[in-house]
Design a protein that fits this description.
Chain B: It is a multi-pass membrane protein. The complex is a heterodimer of chains A (287) and B (306). With 287 residues, chain A is mainly α. In chain A, 73% of the residues lie in helices and 2% in strands. Chain A contains eleven helices and two strands; from the N terminus they run H-H-H-H-E-E-H-H-H-H-H-H-H. Chain A has a two-stranded antiparallel sheet. The radius of gyration of chain A is 18 Å and the shape is globular. The relative contact order of chain B is 0.18. Classes of the chains: A mainly alpha (287), B mainly alpha (306).
Chain lengths: 287, 306
């Protein structure tokens, strides 16, 4: 029982890793907490659903559609909203991202209604291994996330774009002096973040049914994961996501499952009180 | 038709109260509160549970006090946090309140909600029309809260809150206890949100968790941004225009047949989101900007007249 919950928690954690990474990247490069992560994830799930169910494309191709769609939405939001508010400070950006979140969520609701949807995938028997029940979806989630994480890691560490992103995150003015254009880096960050959230949406849609609140339901856990790892730290976000995933699933042993989200909230609160910079250290969280 | 206008007017009153509270917390003191709906829900539930037992006025006061205490508690834990973190803690608080209300059925009746909440002046309402009495009550409540908050904004307390918002370090250097002042501002805002929840419960006479979604929070932010952060008069204008516009669109349902109810509500909520972004970009100072109060205005003039 405990082993199964731990395993489920690791998979949930991997699922959270992509949006947590997306949140932390935006925070690092653009310096605000993007409250639209959940809504962008929802958009990804619906984009893939349209491609998969309505257009009959295979799920892999649908995932690509989702990634491109949400990347486009991220770029559009940046162009229309965030870019114009960049100099107004993080409160304005924060509140604006809440507005963007409402717009995206309700665009989905407008076109698809409140009904629950699911991908057109063949049902498959769970694999039994060492007493664990492993679903096909869980394997898909684990492999996809692992590939994405390696790709983002390589991108951040070894490519000129990754170097530029890290430079802007460290010190935007200094980066500008060295010829790194913040505008271009912001756009590329949104494209990358959008792609990650699009894929996360597809994986979330595999894990549970798709409705307009699918992303919102992950929101607190995503923030808990990113804060746990230290906002702005990509590796921290992944470790934080795994921890939160396991903590949420394992909490079923001691508290009613209805209160799973409270675990994330408690983690956030405890962490901010006792170790405000996150496990791996980040920008000061206190005023 | 008249009943419909009354409904809009009272929803505007509730929104105005919530907005006034957020305007104190965010507009004047600079503290982001994304958990507005949680405090409104606490006020509404406290009222619903207590009003049948102890009468409407004590219930409403307890609602305000309960919300204020929880506000102060949350503020004590989190108000030192940088705004991005404060935002997430408050949003998490709102979600926790929702979960508790949904799951603690022994107290809140879970998803079924609480019916038969008594209205204030119900006896008087039976003789001269319940809606008339209630609308006067709602308007009076807004007026009282407005006068109190406006007096507070002009008082030394309001002044120091704005000083903290504009530069906390300088204010602290002047010997002000920034932490305690922020907690107090948050608590007062919480009290007003609790009272707004009470008004909501009184009007509907039935509450359930589905009435308390993050949309309440979004409405409040929209009203504050539209009115002008820090300006109470602006807030009232903002709350009235936004709510009248948004609730007015409910009318469309009777005329527009192309889109259904879900789509209409999606459209309305999407417009709030777009409105928040557009106002932030195009008119950050709001419809009625915060009045600039100069030191000279506070001093007595020498020749009796400016």
């Amino acid at each position: 029982m405990a082993a199964q919950l731990f395993f489920n928690g690791l998979v949930t954690g991997l699922l959270l890793a992509l949006p947590a990474l997306a949140l932390t990247l935006v925070f690092g490069v653009l310096k605000f907490a993007n409250f639209a992560v959940g809504a962008m994830l929802t958009l990804g799930a619906y984009a893939a659903w349209v491609a998969n169910v309505q257009l009959g494309m295979p799920l892999t191709a649908s995932a690509a559609v989702a990634a491109v769609t949400v990347a486009g939405a991220g770029l559009l939001a940046d162009q229309l909203a965030f870019e114009k508010l960049r100099l107004r400070g993080s409160i304005s950006l924060l509140v604006a991202s809440m507005g963007v979140s409402l717009v995206i969520e309700n665009v989905c609701r407008f076109f698809f209604g409140n009904a629950s949807r699911g991908f057109d995938v063949a049902l498959s028997r769970p694999i039994r291994w060492e007493g664990l029940r492993i679903n096909q979806e869980q394997i898909t989630i684990a492999i996809t996330v692992a590939v994405c994480l390696v790709a983002v890691d390589v991108l951040l560490r070894f490519t000129p774009l990754g170097r530029a992103m890290r430079a802007v995150a460290d010190n935007a003015s200094l980066a500008a002096v060295r010829g790194v254009e913040r505008r271009a880096i912001a756009r590329l960050t949104w494209a990358l973040v959008g792609a990650l959230l699009g894929l996360a949406g597809v994986l979330a849609g595999l894990d549970r049914s798709i409705d307009p609140l699918i992303g919102w339901n992950y929101q607190i856990a995503i923030f808990a994961a990113a804060i746990l790892g230290g906002l702005g730290s990509p590796i921290g976000a992944v470790l934080g996501a795994l921890t939160i995933g396991v903590a949420e699933e394992m909490s079923a042993l001691v508290i009613p499952t209805n209160y799973r989200q409270v675990v994330s909230f408690a983690v956030i609160l405890a962490l901010l009180l006792f170790r405000a910079n996150g496990l791996l250290g980040a920008k000061a969280a206190r005023k | 038709m008249i009943a419909y206008l009354v409904t809009i007017a009272i929803l505007v009153c509730v929104a105005a109260l919530v907005g006034l509270a957020l305007n104190l917390q965010w507009g004047q003191a600079g503290l982001v509160n994304f958990g507005v709906v949680g405090f409104v829900a606490i006020g509404a539930y406290a009222t619903a549970l207590l009003a049948p037992q102890i009468g409407w006025l004590p219930a409403m006061l307890v609602a305000g006090a309960a919300s204020a205490i929880l506000s102060a508690g949350l503020a004590l834990l989190s108000i030192r946090l940088e705004e991005n973190y404060l935002a997430i803690v408050t949003i998490g608080f709102g979600e926790v309140v929702r979960l508790v209300i949904l799951n603690e059925g022994w107290l809140t009746n879970g998803a079924l909600g609480i019916p038969d909440i008594p209205r204030p002046f119900a006896a008087l309402g039976r003789t001269i029309g319940g809606d008339t009495v209630f609308i006067v009550f709602a308007l009076a409540l807004v007026a009282v809260v407005f006068v109190l908050l406006e007096a507070m904004a002009r008082s030394p307390f309001g002044r120091v809150l704005r000083a903290i918002r504009d530069d906390a370090t300088v204010t602290a250097a002047l010997g002000k206890n920034v932490f305690a002042l922020r907690v107090r501002a948050f608590a007062v805002g919480g009290a007003v949100m609790g009272i707004a929840g009470a008004l909501h419960a009184f009007y509907l006479t039935y509450i359930d968790p589905s009435q308390f979604t993050p949309i309440v929070t979004a409405y409040a932010f929209m009203a504050v941004i539209a009115g002008g952060r820090g300006s109470n008069v602006g807030l009232l204008i903002g709350a009235c225009s936004i709510m009248a516009l948004l609730e007015g669109t409910r009318f469309l349902k009777d005329f527009v047949t192309v889109i259904d109810g879900v789509q209409l509500s999606a459209l309305r909520l999407g417009l709030i989101g777009a409105g928040i972004v557009a106002l932030l970009i195009l008119r950050p100072q709001g419809l009625a900007p915060e009045p600039k109060r100069r030191a000279a205005d506070l001093l007595p003039t020498e020749k009796g007249g400016v």
